[in-house]
Design goal:
Helix content: 25-40%
Protein name: Alanine--tRNA ligase
Structural class: alpha+beta
Cofactor: Zn(2+)
Radius of gyration: 34 Å
Organism: Lactococcus hircilactis
EC number: 6.1.1.7
CATH topology of the largest domain: BirA Bifunctional Protein, domain 2
CATH class of the largest domain: Alpha Beta
Strand content: 15-25%
Largest sheet: 9 strands, mixed
Distance between the termini: 77 Å
Number of domains: 5
Pfam families: DHHA1, tRNA-synt_2c, tRNA_SAD
Length: 874
């Protein structure tokens, strides 16, 4: 077995399968495209689902890839185990209805044992298989693996509910007796004991059945198209080939760890307590790649995962003694380690560093806030006479504010408190259970549609054509091919068509199909791509349609014209966002409908009003410039990108690509339809900007007639406002409103003055009614005030003299009840008192130790509340 760098390990895998006829597929973004079942791309097969379920037929049924992946349902294990990572690289080879068990096992054995490739000794390899899968057992023996190295395991069957499933066979590498101190041997595998001796390096899933949860596994039907799905972890292979004690002791992590050593002044010991080094090295890889792919830290979804990773890394940096911000300085190290296959990390390093630096700075402030939360919590526990911090509170500090249990424990012990570890563990396990329940292994897959997958008849889409004669190639009704259909719903493929199939955010064309006499025989309601890429028309049949007959196809021109205006405006908006918001504003989705356009993009803050105005202005200026729009089909993807072309989100690009060029302003890879000049768009109006997820913003806009109607409606509203405020002209609305605001301020000041006088008049009698409980004096009463400020003014008057130690006021203001508690005694916290009294009025509240308020809806509870004041002041 020869030494290899991680880059050589990856190249060896990809080149081997390329030599077997596979196409090397590029590693895709960690952020899934059009797949709501996944939070992250979490495996190589996650990017291949459309091929496995038959919804798309690949150009080459043999594919191989090295796919960056993220799994974060067990973040806490990173650093504790030898092989757990949040981000990892999964090498895989895939066969879609081509080679199967015989070839897959032969390829695996050759690649692993041949000296031209990895050159592993055969005696070091052990294989598990599904007990009922004797074909796999026999095939391994045939290629040269000793029968004694084959271990049947009942769990070796891959299924995720209904859909493709099948047995799998896993290959393990024996690292030797030094990793088996109790000399347990092969029982470690057969009994599925977690160990460091037998390391799984390769898994082959034989996807041959259509799983049906309603029947037993032995009754599963064979798939019409059998597939191969495999996975080989790059980090594990590097660990074995480079003879690292763990995955972290390899060239994938050590350069990062060495930089952490320099920053901390501490030394990494592979055999010692090195968890913090591992956590930081792992998490900065995930952060660098995920942010580079457009995900941003936030409070939910992917953003929450990234924020949690960053905070965990920062806290481990503090445990190593690193002072100040440091994570951003590791980004370029990550980029240099991965540059061989992922140059984009270095290309986007400045942006990634900016996001991480800003987030780390925010977290440092959060740590200070967390310190105050702990102080307040401990103070409250002291008041209650408790000596233990509840596990739920520890978990809240950990999960919400990023405080490690160790830090909470240290601060608590300094104040003489204990920690409820069992309660914390229970809360943590509950969260992990929720996370695992939300994870779908590899994402769900639909069942294969044998009828659509079998259709190979060619079909050509006619760009910029609104009507054409065409012959029916295929009619599908009730999931079966038919030669003729008189009525009902059908799916039809023509030899050529002017109907655009939905793609890249542009909705499909609608229209009609006519016979030779000009009569409408079917209405087209939708067009999608069939598995082999043909435009598949969904139609309502009005008169008989027959395969082989010629018909007239006519699209709805009004619909098409509206859609292409919106689609072309999307290109202009994309370019304007780069110019005004920043190059980091990457497209994260789009929808070009008949009545509007919607554009999603990555951005870490709300787009300001000034930026929105600038975007709208710039797009309209490009419309008014009447720029000619060119579509080029003579370029390769690489040539187009050299021109500066950007790939639109969700598009699939084959060998024949289309590049849409709008002067020197915008160059995009796009398969959609567009206007011939920008002036055809007419007008552009942004109507909404909103956040739709962590780090993702959405702009909704209108073009043409819809934009004009929006401006007319705005003008109509303005005129109505002018009429209400009695402004002679719309141009005078602003000055009139300003004058009314000044009048309102004057009235409010007069009202406050009157409220103050009322408070003074009430206070003279109110503050004389002092009661006592123990050594504490208090005033508790219901008062009449017009608003909450009235309560505050009474409290201010009370503070000016030594009327009593405590003040409790209740007022019914409109339909609500408000309670104010003010305290002068340090040992009595106003916030605790108001929380105890609020339930009597069906309310809740809180505040500072010296002043707190509550609100409720039950006025009938006021008397009972006042009767219970004394007992809550003891």
């Amino acid at each position: 077995m020869k030494y290899m760098t991680s880059a050589e390990i990856r190249d060896t895998f990809l080149n081997f399968f390329e030599s077997k006829g596979s196409t090397i597929m590029p590693s895709q973004s960690l952020v899934p495209v059009n797949d709501p079942t996944l939070l992250w791309i979490n495996s190589g097969v996650a990017t291949m689902k459309k091929y496995f379920d038959g919804s798309v037929v690949p150009e080459n049924p043999r594919m191989t890839s090295s796919q960056k992946s993220i799994r974060t349902n067990d973040i806490e294990n990173v650093g504790k185990t030898a092989r757990h990572h949040t981000m990892f690289e999964m090498m895989g080879n895939f066969s879609i209805g081509d080679y199967f068990r015989t070839e897959a096992i032969a390829y695996a054995f050759e690649m692993l044992t041949d000296e031209k490739y990895y050159g592993f000794p055969v005696e070091k390899l052990y294989v598990t298989y599904y007990p009922d899968d004797q074909e796999t057992y026999q095939r391994w023996v045939e290629v040269g693996l000793p029968a004694s190295h084959l271990v049947p395991i009942e769990d070796n069957f891959w299924e995720i509910g209904a859909g493709p499933s099948g047995p799998d066979t896993e290959i393990f590498f024996d690292r030797g007796a030094q990793y088996d101190p109790e000399n347990i041997g092969l029982r470690l595998l057969s009994e599925d004991i977690e160990n460091d001796r037998y390391i799984e390096i390769y898994n082959i899933v034989l996807s041959q059945f259509n799983a049906d949860p309603s029947v037993s596994r032995k009754q599963y039907k064979e798939l019409p198209q059998k597939n191969i799905d495999t996975g080989m972890g790059l980090e594990r292979m590097a660990c074995i080939i480079q003879e690292g004690r763990t995955n972290f002791d390899t060239d994938l992590f050590l350069p990062i760890i060495h930089e952490i050593e320099r920053l901390s002044g501490k030394t990494y010991d592979p055999d010692g307590n090195n968890m913090s080094f591992k956590v930081i090295a792992d998490h900065i890889r995930s952060l660098s790649f995920a942010i580079g792919d457009g995900a941003l830290p936030g409070n939910e979804g992917r953003g929450y995962v990234l924020r949690r990773l960053l905070r965990r890394a920062v806290m481990h940096g503090k445990r190593l003694g690193i002072q100040g911000k440091f994570l951003a300085s590791l980004v370029k190290i990550v980029g240099q380690v991965m540059e061989n296959y992922y140059p984009e990390v270095l290309e986007k390093a400045d942006f990634i560093e900016k996001i991480i630096d800003r987030e780390e700075e925010t977290f440092n402030r959060t740590i200070d806030a967390g310190q105050k939360l702990i102080d307040d919590l401990l103070s409250e526990l002291k008041t209650q006479g408790k000596d233990t911090i509840d596990g739920a509170d520890i978990f809240r500090l950990y999960d919400t504010y990023g405080f490690p249990v160790e830090l909470t424990e240290e601060l608590a012990q300094d104040e003489g408190f204990k920690i409820d570890h069992a309660g914390f563990d229970a809360a943590m396990k509950a969260q992990q259970a929720r996370a695992r329940a939300a994870v779908v292994k590899g994402g769900s897959m639909g069942a294969q549609n044998e009828t659509l997958s079998s259709i190979e008849e060619a079909s050509e889409f006619l760009y910029d054509v609104h009507a054409a004669k065409s012959k029916i190639s295929v009619i599908v009704s009730a999931d079966k091919k038919v030669s003729t259909l008189a009525s009902g719903t059908a799916q039809i493929i023509f030899d050529q068509t002017p109907f655009y199939a939905e793609m890249g955010g542009q909705v499909s064309d609608h229209g009609v199909i006519k016979n030779e006499d000009g009569d409408v025989v079917a209405v087209v309601t939708d067009v999608q791509h069939a598995p082999h890429g043909q435009n598949l028309h969904t139609v309502n049949v009005l008169s008989a349609l027959t395969v082989g007959e010629t018909y007239h196809l006519e699209i709805d021109e009004v619909r098409r014209n509206a859609v292409v205006k919106n689609h072309t405006a999307t290109h202009l908006l994309h370019a304007a966002l780069h110019n005004i918001v920043g190059k980091h504003a990457l497209q994260a989705g789009s929808l070009n409908e008949v009545d509007f356009l919607r554009f999603d993009f990555t951005h870490f803050a709300q787009v300001t009003k000034e930026e929105l105005a600038a975007l709208e202005q710039e797009v309209n200026e490009k419309i008014w410039e009447n720029i000619t729009i060119q579509t080029r089909t003579d370029l390769s993807v690489d040539q187009a990108k050299e021109m500066g072309a950007a790939a639109l989100f969700g598009e699939k690009y084959g060998t024949n690509i289309r590049v849409v060029v709008i002067g020197d302003y915008s160059v995009e890879l796009c398969g959609g339809t567009h206007t011939k000049t920008t002036s055809e768009i007419g007008l552009f109006k942004i109507v909404k900007e909103e956040g739709i997820g962590s780090g993702v913003r959405r702009i909704t806009a209108l073009t043409g007639q819809k934009a004009y109607e929006a401006f007319v409606n705005s003008e109509k509203t303005l005129l109505e406002v002018a009429n209400v405020i009695k402004a002679p002209q719309a141009t005078q609305v602003l000055s009139k409103v300003s004058a009314l605001q000044e009048e309102l301020k004057t009235v409010q000041k007069e009202n406050e003055a009157l409220t103050g006088k009322l408070a003074v008049s009430q206070s003279e009698e109110l503050f004389k009614n002092v009661q006592n409980v123990g050594t504490t004096s208090f005033i508790a009463a219901q008062v009449k005030v017009s608003d909450i400020n009235g309560l505050r003014q009474l409290a201010d008057l009370w503070k000016q003299k030594e009327w009593s130690d405590e003040l409790i006021l209740v007022a019914k203001i409109g339909e609500k009840v408000n309670v104010l508690v003010a305290s002068k005694k340090p040992e009595i916290k106003a916030g605790n008192v108001v929380k105890a009294l609020a339930p009597y009025i069906d309310g809740r509240g809180g505040g500072k130790p010296d002043l707190a308020m509550a609100g409720g809806a039950n006025a009938n509870g006021i008397s009972e509340l006042l009767n219970h004041v004394a007992e809550n002041l003891k």
